[in-house]
């Protein structure tokens, strides 16, 4: 599949500082980097974003993630590899990514489970990071960007 245009962030470099601020802020709010990588990967799996899956797996490995856990992200409910906090974050990622699939986008049950494991600041970071992950997925899908991509 041919890309429709180059990476939009390189064509409009003025957006990079804003994206970097969101990235740095969400990644400094107290949520473990490995958890943020997992939710990014799960959203990217749902949205079929090969670029984000490729980059996400690489970053997750740099954060100390194991192949065993990376291979199981899509089936996180059926595997023993994830903590209760990670499971709550993954459920939140799925709900936020699939907001149109149910009458209540994020159920009270999913939110309450996440709130048992994360502070309000951490929940804010998770929600923003999931939203940004979905933005990346949608941009990459729209322009048919292919992995691997150098965003640096």
From TrEMBL:
InterPro entries: AhpD-like (IPR029032), AhpD_core (IPR004675), CMD-like (IPR003779)
Domain of life of the native organism: Bacteria
Carboxymuconolactone decarboxylase-like domain ranges (all copies): 13-95
Cross-referenced NCBIfam families: ahpD_dom
Stated name of the protein: Carboxymuconolactone decarboxylase family protein
